[in-house]
Design a protein that fits this description.
about 550 residues, Jelly Rolls, mainly beta, about 40% strand, single chain, globular, 7-stranded antiparallel sheet
Length: about 550
């Protein structure tokens, strides 16, 4: 029979839907494929297929219900669980629970005292009553029980164990269900008290329904030990330009105020692989704060941001090294993300200071295959100079904290990380605030955490510097005293896809009533046609 009209359309639509469903089913997510994806720096440049939603379950204070509730800035973000169970005579507290297919992709914990450190973790997959993973919480998350550094690491190494942030990036895929529990005989939960202080954030991908995910087994950890080692070796190295097909552009000179050092790549199907900059100025802080990095891909300006913020060094040169950015002892700053384009790319370093600057910059491009899933790299910046912190009511403040915007994007893309630069002005910790990330119109954030330092992978406001492939604190001088602090977090498996919009906020929650300078940088990949919200001023943020 020959189909025509509406009937023919139904057949075509059904066939397309069946084909797309088959494509999804043919793509298998496994422990090994996720390990490969961690080190595939090109993966994040394409919208994920199969698609997934990123969620975070944490020990956030359950009084945090809605922006108009009294507990929106509640700060007892510890020892909160989904529920209590009894398994084989054990009292187990459920930290995380989700229906698959999915994968745990980032796990952070810290512990308030020795009693909290004595916590035991069990990971149950697909309804099995025998855990696929288990062990003491510090060793399992950041102590190397499951994988060597940096997949499992505690930061800062200079900090005593009780005050470290424990980070696990080893993926845990599950096909049907995942439940994570904690056992600790010292746990006491009453309406008046929670003890000991146990903090956690667990990020998970939840894939679309028909995605084939192979659940992790203990045997896989042994059989894939070489893949784990190879992943760690890549993460511990510094990304080098691709020797096959790499193209280098550079420019050096002295640039008066208002002029720009520019490199133009008139090439097709390439990607900016790295951008490096060295500045010499009489006033280093002014140069880093007022020199702007602008990048245009195929006529779209997607980056316009101060150099110190973009490179993660703040307003002084602070040596550190991550997988995606670094600053060395000579002041050379490097940013290494794959940033694709089809027709051309223009990189400019604009001198917005009042002095003539010596600028040395060079960039590397590599071949890139652009397809329908490819996105442009972008970076935005929100500056809150002299913003007033409310302070805790216990220290004479009002307790009327505010949410600050890290990023607000309308469009389709993937959130790839962020950084904060703070100039603290008081002898008190500035970062009690939790991150709140809303995706595609959510009214309650699918990612809500337990504190600024927890979000950036360390703990207990510790000032010791550290570097890690995905997180860093180049300087923490402003954590307890007046001074500057820089924190950053880059996302790989925990990148956040969004179909229509994303809003990332963080609470300004300072212990004392004071004024500080607070800068927030966001990194992302987007399709053309996106819109970012304008920079918020202190006045607009603090209006009712």
């Amino acid at each position: 029979m020959k189909a025509s009209g509406p009937f023919k359309c139904v057949i075509i639509c059904a066939s397309v839907a069946l084909l797309l469903s088959s494509c999804t089913r043919d793509k298998v997510v496994s422990f090994r494929s996720l390990l490969v994806e961690i080190t595939d720096r090109e993966a994040i440049t394409r919208f994920p297929d199969p698609s997934y939603r990123l969620i975070q379950q944490s020990s956030y204070d359950r009084r945090t219900v809605s922006p108009d509730s009294a507990g929106w800035f509640a700060n007892n973000d510890y020892t909160h669980f989904i529920r209590e169970e009894e398994n084989e005579g054990r009292r187990e507290y459920v930290m995380f629970e989700a229906e698959g297919p999915g994968a745990i992709v980032r796990w952070w914990m810290t512990f308030g005292n020795q009693d909290a450190l004595a916590s035991y973790i069990r990971v149950y997959l697909d309804g099995n009553t025998v855990p696929v993973l288990e062990g003491m919480a510090p060793e399992l998350t950041g102590g190397g029980l499951l994988a060597p550094p940096p997949l499992s690491a505690a930061v800062s190494p200079l900090t005593e164990p009780q005050r470290q942030g424990y980070n696990l990036y080893l993926p845990i895929p599950f096909s049907r269900r995942c439940k994570i529990t904690l056992t600790n005989s010292s746990v006491l939960i009453t309406p008046e008290r929670r003890t000991p202080s146990i903090y956690y954030n667990i990020c998970s991908r939840l894939y679309e329904k028909d995605t084939r995910v192979i659940s992790l087994t203990r045997e896989m950890l042994l059989a894939d030990s070489l893949a784990i080692a190879e992943c760690c070796n890549v993460l511990n190295g510094i990304p080098a330009p691709d020797a096959s097909g790499g193209s280098v552009g550079s420019s050096t000179g002295r640039y008066p105020p208002g002029t720009a050092c520019t490199i133009i790549f008139d090439e097709k199907n390439r990607a900016l692989e790295s951008l490096s900059l060295r500045l010499e100025a009489a006033d280093t802080a002014s140069a880093l704060r007022n020199t702007r990095i602008t990048i245009t891909f195929d006529g779209h300006e997607t980056v316009n941001i101060p150099a110190g913020n973009f490179f993660g060094t703040g307003y002084s040169f602070n040596p550190y090294n991550t997988l995606f950015s670094s600053t060395d002892s000579t002041g050379k700053m490097t940013f290494s993300r794959i940033m694709p384009f089809r027709e051309g790319c223009t990189v400019s370093v604009v001198n917005g200071s009042n002095d003539t600057l010596a600028i040395e910059t060079w960039a590397v491009t590599v071949p890139y295959r652009w397809d329908e899933h490819s996105m442009y790299f972008g970076a935005s910046w929100h500056e809150y100079p002299g913003i007033e912190a409310a302070g805790s009511e216990n220290t004479g403040g009002t307790g009327k904290h505010v949410d600050l915007a890290i990023a607000g994007i309308e469009g389709k893309g993937v959130y790839a990380g962020d950084a904060v630069t703070v100039l603290n002005t008081a002898d008190a910790w500035w970062g009690e605030g939790d991150e709140k990330i809303y995706v595609d119109g959510e009214t309650f954030p699918s990612s809500i955490g337990t504190g600024t330092e927890d979000y950036y992978g360390y703990a207990w406001c510790r000032p010791e510097p550290f570097s890690h492939p995905f997180i860093a604190q180049p300087t923490g001088e402003g954590n307890f005293f007046p001074g500057m602090t820089v924190n950053m977090r880059y996302r790989a498996l925990d990148a956040i896809p969004f179909e229509s919009a994303i809003r990332a906020d963080i609470e300004l929650w300072h212990w004392v009533k004071t004024k500080i300078d607070y800068s927030l940088t966001a990194y992302y990949y987007v399709f053309p046609g996106y819109v970012t919200e304008p920079v918020r001023t202190p006045e607009s943020v603090q209006k009712p």
